[in-house]
Amino acid sequence: MSNVHYFLFLIHYLLSILLIIMLSRHFIFLLSIFSIVVLSLTPVVVYATYELAYRGRIYPGVQIDKSKIKNQKSKILKLVNGEKEWIVQAEQLGVNLDWDRTREKLYRTGRNGDFGKDLEIKYRAYRQGITVEPEFDYNREMAAELVASVSGEIDRAAAEPKFRLAQDRVTEFVRAETGIRVNRNQLTDRLIQAVFSAREQVEVPVETITPVAPKGEMTAESLGIKQLLGKGISTYKGSISARKHNVGLTAERIDGVLVGPGETFSFNQTVGEINKENGFLEAYVIKDGRTELGDGGGVCQVSTTLFRAVLAAGLPVAERRAHSYRVGYYEQNSPPGFDATVYSPTTDFKFKNDTSSYLLIQAKVDNNASTLIMELWGTGDGRIAKTTKPIVTDQIAPPPDVYQDDTSLPAGTVKQVDWKAWGAKVRFDYTVTRAGATIYSKTFVSNYKPWQAVYLRGTGTP
User: Which of 452, 432, 450, 434 is nearest to 442 (CA)?
Assistant: First the structure.
């Protein structure tokens, strides 16, 4: 039976009682009693009828706060990790109205179980309306995709330590480095909590990944190879292929060498004989005041770069000699005076390991970029190395340009292999301190003769 049928049945029942009363002998008395009963029951009947009419339905005047829907969907969050920031919009998380939960919330408005409070809510909703905040949900797949994208820009795998010795030389060395990764579950929770609250910024949670400890007795740690002590850099743009080959070969012979505590490193002893039998090619060298082909041109690029690494590490230099002339290669990224020439067996470059642990020399060659890097690894002891700005004096103008015939170049070709340089006297001070006390100091003086530009003039077959 429908609600309307219930209402008509009730009216019919009351009229029947009224008719019976009117036909009775005590009409007036009974009519009064009936009126009192009817007046008393009318609010109850009306309320019951109202409840029956909206059974399973939302009460009139109860509606969604539509402004909340618009604001929620357009909300913007800022994700922060150190100096990195990401702007995230709610729509990137698939935030949308959860109609099932919202409808249940609308339906429960005025049905809280407190009769007086529920009656007041229903009356207010009927008279002036009541807005209810909607319920929202998010798309799990979209949230996971967003979190994965952010994590991909932050996650860094741990570098597992590698250390391998072969005949007293390190053939493989990678220092251990901790990694980081985003806690994706926690970031998702923080994002969802923030997007449905008043928060506007979320800190991206990260975890530290600890490298696995190396196994075996001989490790970099046991030798004291823990940190980078000094690095030297030089460039050699314009070098011919043979010179680049020699730079790479020399660096290869230096790379991985261990220098024990108290030992003095000798460049010449480490590299060995500079000749064709040992793989060196002919490249242009300065000899007897001329630029000419000679075995091992480019070897001094390595000794010069190692000299700079030694200065940066604060180690005592036992032997160093400057070139007779200022060489353009060594001043491409450095002021004059920071070069070291070698010529076995008379001229060597040496430095002493005065630390309490081993030193590891690493060489990194990039012939495409014409760049050489020499690194010294060991255990720092708090020393600080400083070099003063070089002072250039007694400058002498370069001689006229020199042109030399070269059969390896096609006729008509001119190639510059040396650049003019002024003769000069260059000096700088080198001081090493620890805890405020000077432990080593030396003044390096370089006397350079003036040098002309040198061009190769092709005389070969075109």
Answer: 432
Q: Domain ranges in the chain? A: 3-53, 224-460
Contact by Cβ (8 Å): 407, 459: yes
Other beta carbons within 10 angstroms of residue 308's beta carbon come to: 23
pLDDT one digit per residue (tens) for the chain, 462 residues: 455 555 666 666 666 666 666 655 555 655 666 666 655 666 666 677 777 878 888 888 888 888 888 888 788 888 898 888 989 888 888 888 888 888 888 888 888 888 888 888 878 878 888 888 888 888 888 989 999 999 989 998 877 566 766 666 777 776 667 889 999 999 999 988 888 888 889 999 999 987 765 454 457 777 888 889 999 999 999 888 999 999 999 999 998 888 889 999 999 989 988 888 889 988 766 665 555 566 678 899 999 999 999 999 999 999 999 998 888 899 999 999 999 999 888 899 999 999 999 899 999 999 999 999 999 999 999 999 999 999 999 999 999 998 989 888 898 899 887 778 889 999 999 999 999 999 999 999 999 999 888 898 998 877
172-210 CB burial, b ≥16 within 10 A, e <16? ebebbeebeebebeebbebbbebbbeeeeebebebeeee
| CA nearest neighbour of 386 among 329, 339, 438 | 438
CA angle 209, 231, 390 (to 5 degrees): 150
Quote the pTM value. Answer: 0.58
Quote the Cα angle for 75-78-83, to 5°. Answer: 170
CA distance 415 to 461: 16
Q: Which residues touch 331 (CB under 8 Å, ≥6 apart)? A: 421
